[in-house]
Amino acid sequence: MTGDRSREEPLFRPLTAWRPKLILGSLFTGAVAALLFYSWGYQIRNDIGVAGINRPVFWGFYITNFVFWIGISHAGTLISAILRVTSAEWRRPVTRCAEAITVFALLIGGLFPLIHLGRPWLFWFMIPLPNHRGLWPNFRSPLVWDITAIGTYLIGSILYLLLPLLPDLAILRDRHTADNPDSARARIYRFIALGWRGTAQQWHSLESGIRALAVIIIPVAVSVHTIVSWDFSMTLQPMWHSTIFGPYFVVGAIYSGIAVLMVTMYLLRRGMGLESYLNDKVFNNLGLLFLAFTLIWGYFTFAEHLTVWYGNEPSEMAVFTERISGKYARIFWAMVLLNVAVPVLVLSFPRGRKPWLTAIVGVGVLIGMWIERFIIVVGTLSLPRLDFTVGSYQPTWVELGILVGSFGCFALLYLVFVQIAPIVSIWEVREGDHHLNQVHSATEHPVLETT
Amino acid sequence: MSRNASAWLHAVFDSPSDARDALEELAQEGLTFRDIEVRSSIPLEGVHPPDLQLHSRVPLMAVLGGIVGGICAFMLTSLTSQAYPMETGGMPIVPLPTTGVITFEGIAIGAILTTVATVLYECGLPRFRTKSGPLDHYLSTGQIVVAACIGDGESPEWVSKAIATERQDADQEDRTSSS
Amino acid sequence: MTRWGMVIDTDRCTGCGACVVACHAENNIQTVGEEEAKNGRAMHWLRIERHYEGEFPDIRVRFLPVLCQQCGSAPCEPVCPVYATYRTPEGLNAMVYSRCIGTRYCANNCPYTVRFFNWHAGEWPKPLDRQLNPDVSVRPAGVMEKCTFCVQRIQDGQDRAKDENRSVTDADIETACSQSCPAQAITFGDLENSDSRVAQMAKSARASHLLEDLGTDPSVIYLLGGE
Q1: How far apart are CA A431 and CA A414, in angstroms?
Q2: Is B136 inside any structural domain?
Q3: Which residues of A touch B54 (CB under 8 A)?
């Protein structure tokens, strides 16, 4: 089972010494991330009014970004949980980098409701803390559901990332301790590996735990984006008040999640030389999943718009017309192109599921999904039922800075993570190799077959 | 390891089948699972002392945690809403559908936290004081380390036999140590 | 029981805008200035919508004063995560400024678009600050506000009636808009009190609610239909 360990070297490279490229990358993304905090600080200092939101477009970029990032967070935990529960063997190199996407996208997504508040320093009014002020959250509000759902999902995904990470941290601990037991890295890994030993009982408990978490996290992930969609569909507003929104948003979330996973995997593969892990087969399989979600998302979008058009209710039709042929028509059809036409045309063919192609399609889908959320948020709000108050929306530099900065934040968190933990789960891949060897040796020596 | 005064024999194995053979031999020499520790960097089915029954209460605890979490969340929303008698203009202050949403999340968070707590408890983690064994770095390259307690007195016969066999085999390494 | 309500006779409304000005003065509503108004941030708790019928020169303008409808089943209330907006026992849709954290969810769920957000805090350069109404709080930046049916005047009228040991009548309470309307298009009172003027007028054949089909049960009744 030892086999050739040289394959693992690219994984250990950023974990054993400082790599100039990664440091430079972190500094650059850190600078971009600083843009978010500068813009946000500016907004807190000079009131929410420095953003372009107005009446009636009370929600703009911030809520769009919120839905977008929370959607991306469905990449990891959900996809990795589904692949784990179904024991898909090709999941092994994918789970860790997908789970990391979830945690970081959630941290950023969870920031946006705070950014968008008029008085963000009072956000704790929404948390049930006993107090003397007669304050209590309104549990009937979808925003309070948001907090419970996103909180649960965040805690769940952090633990779901960390639990399978423990044995890998122990591997790093042993490796660094063997090199130099007094080095800073050895000390740090000794601490964060929590004293994992890898005994038979520990493995047994860990595997039961991972299995249980995978089963629990799937309904949680579904509930999270359902509840995000309910922020809209619980209202009376035209084209928000839709029963289909729950599943529609969940599908869109997984769709954008796969897109970001494709892009991230391609960058990891190129940047870290992980061709032997994130190989063409993995991209091909995920590409097929990607294609399936393209079709499902396209179907939902069609169903959503068909019912509105057929129903022909005036206030809904005002929003609908603006989308199809009005102010938002250009970006609406760009979305259809990026989210349906291009993915179907590219991903349907085996040659289109090459890593670089799936990554390009992924970038397109990310743009398309962002547009989808923007049209839903702003498209409806700018056309209230009383047409005397029709409005428009123009983002300011603060909103753009926060949007750009959020990508910087995500990249920074990811680059730092790559330097702390192996981005491909070492033990899970070793386990996969072991299963393969077992199959081979079982054919040679049937005696060794295990149950 | 609990037996501080005892001496331990550590051995490294390349393949799980070798490790399993060694474990069976140890069992024949009368060692129970209390005296043997098998460690590996991957989960290995069947590679453990033959008399060790692996068990985990994670599924049971997850269900219990879910029930407790759900009840707590339901109580939190319903009881506190009733205790803070806000005017809602005739709308129900504790409607079951909205309370159900939060109860669902309570079930999930309860199950997640108990699952992780149970895993840590069963694994005996965190344990920061543990010193690393002499052969631990072999774990990081994927080998299997078997440690057997050989008591504090004279080495039993099988130990010297084992060491003698190992010396003949140049591929494998072993060492005895006392901790 | 009391349910405060308002009847607006659109056939009387001339669209002069006196009510809008009176509302600003009474409730310390900030004036945002030209630049911000252009960005869609003008604040008028009460606005006069102009609706044109017909083609020029055969054109007719109808005016519709729109303010918070103080809905009996208000869409804005359940969505607020912090109970900053809730229904009082007297049928008012109240706004607690100090509780508001500025999610603006209530405004999004208001089909009448009558909720206003303080994008910036109001400014009253000297000596304008001396005309602020001491009975009404000045709202900080980041909170939602809207028509209160001049709750400070309701309070005042109720106190006076209580001091004189009698029940509240139409003469005790008048909102700033109804007081200042030269055409007397706006009437305020208790809808549950069958002697009040609003209760009488609500029985009119011309009475209707705005966006009635949404089932929000508004407390503002519009009289319209006369030529």
Answers
A1: 25
A2: yes
A3: 200-201, 204
Instruction: Assign a CATH topology to domain A11-430.
Output: Formate dehydrogenase/DMSO reductase fold (1.20.1630)
Looking at the complex, does the CB of residue B72 fall below 8 Å from at least one CB of chain A?
A: no
Cα–Cα distance measured from residue C130 to residue C127, given in angstroms and rounded to the nearest whole number: 6
Same domain membership, residue B49 and residue B18: yes
Cβ of residue B53 closer than 8 Å to a chain A Cβ: no
- Find the mean pLDDT for residues A224-246: 93
Task: Convert the pLDDT of each residue in A14-50 to its tens digit.
Answer: 888 888 888 999 999 999 999 999 999 999 999 999 9
DSSP state of A7: G
Quote the pTM value.
0.92
Any domain includes B1: no
What residue numbers bound the domain in which B150 lies?
Answer: 7-54+132-178
Tally of domains within chain B: 2
Contacts of B119 in chain A (CB under 8 A): 163, 205-206, 208-209
Select from B75, B101, B129 the residue whose CB has the most chain A CBs within 10 Å, as the one to mutate to test that interface: B101
Residue for token digits 């109580």?
B75
Distance, in Å, from the CA atom of C132 to the CA atom of C155, rounded to the nearest integer, reads 18
Q: Point out the residue among C79, C101, C113 whose CB comes nearest to the CB of A119.
A: C101
User: Does residue B108 sit in the same domain as residue B139?
Assistant: no
Q: Report d(CA C68, CA C147) in Å as an integer.
A: 5
Judge if B110 and B142 occupy the same domain. no
Option in A175, A194, A431 nearest B43 (CB): A431
Instruction: Take residue A168 and report the two structure tokens written for it.
Output: 């890998």
**Nearest Cβ partner of B132 from A128, A174, A426?**
A174
User: Shortest CB distance from C82 goes to which of A48, A120, A126?
Assistant: A126
Instruction: Report d(CA A352, CA A358) in Å as an integer.
Output: 7
Q: Are residues B64 and B119 in the same domain?
A: yes
A10-14, B61-65, C189-193: lowest mean pLDDT where?
A10-14
Residues A431-440: tens digit of each pLDDT: 888 888 777 6
Report yes or no on B2 lying in a domain: no
Do residue B139 and residue B165 come from a single domain? yes
Are A266 and A355 a contacting pair, CB within 8 Å? yes
Cα nearest neighbour of B131 on chain A: A195
- Does the residue B108 lie in any domain? yes
Whether B106 and B64 map to the same domain: the answer is: yes
Q: Strands C60-66 and C47-53: what pairing? A: antiparallel
User: Where does a domain end: B97, B123, B149?
Assistant: B123
- Give the count of Cβ contacts less than 8 A between chain B and C: 23
For each of the domains in chain C, give its residue range(s) and CATH number, in order of start.
4-223 (3.30.70.20)
For C97, list phi and psi in degrees, rounded to 5. -65, -40
Selected residue of A127, A169, A203 to mutate for chain B interface (largest B Cβ count, 10 A): A203
Q: What is the ipTM of this complex?
A: 0.92
Q: Which residues pair with C187 in a beta bridge?
A: C7
Q: Based on the domain organization, do B115 and B137 belong to the same domain? A: no
